[in-house]
Amino acid sequence: TTSSCVFHFPPLFSLVPTHLLFPHQKKFLQTTHAHTHTQMSSGLSRRIIKETQKLMTEPPPGISATPHENNLRYFKVAIAGPSQSPYQGGVFRLELFLPSDYPMSAPKVRFLTKIYHPNIDNVGRICMDVLKDKWSPALQIRTVLLSIQALLSAPNPDDPLANDVADHWKKDESGAIEKAKQWTEQFASE
């Protein structure tokens, strides 16, 4: 099966050290207003600042997104596995990067936590229409994160990125779900 998910972007995330911890959200909120002028002159838009503030003051249930203190276009994300899914009980770490032409281009997102899912490959890339041809500048970071959370509840083996996982899902759904639960316990337990 050929996937419609084709990625044409460089490995942006390899430029950011993965050993960095989440900065304190409170510190960001206190310093954002003071740094707005500086950030605007360095290319950070009001929209990004507003979206970030809303994500931090009103986070979507089960989702945490914290900007890196030195690069407000780079976010560390944690998504709780949805209940009644094979990912329930897991906490999945992701990284999200806003390209310089955001919101005209979709954010670049990938899983850092290993996951057994037909729409997520072994390096964490995600096959999801809002990250490719269905992206619109009207969408926001919040929309992308909620869509990823929904994808965990409803894997789609008919539009796979991980063909081997999709084949397993189609041939033996209960076996694939069990393997997804095992991987969640092994790789996404906090």
Structural class label: alpha+beta
The CATH H-level superfamily is Ubiquitin Conjugating Enzyme
Low-confidence stretches: 6-42
Can you count the beta strands? 4
Using the coordinates above, name the CATH class: Alpha Beta
Average pLDDT, all residues:
84
Following the backbone from N to C, one meets helices and strands in this order, namely HHEEEEHHH
Q: How many separate helices? A: 5
Radius of gyration over all CA atoms, rounded? 17 Å
The CATH topology assignment is Ubiquitin Conjugating Enzyme
Biggest sheet layout: 4 strands, antiparallel
Give the percentage of residues in beta strands.
Answer: 5-15%
Distance between the termini: 35 Å
CATH architecture: Roll
- Report strand order across the widest sheet: 1-2-3-4
* Tally of separate domains: 1
Estimate the helix proportion, in percent: 25-40%
Give the overall form.
globular
Pfam families: UQ_con
GO molecular function: ATP binding; ubiquitin conjugating enzyme activity
InterPro entries: UBC, UBQ-conjugating_enzyme/RWD
EC number: 2.3.2.23
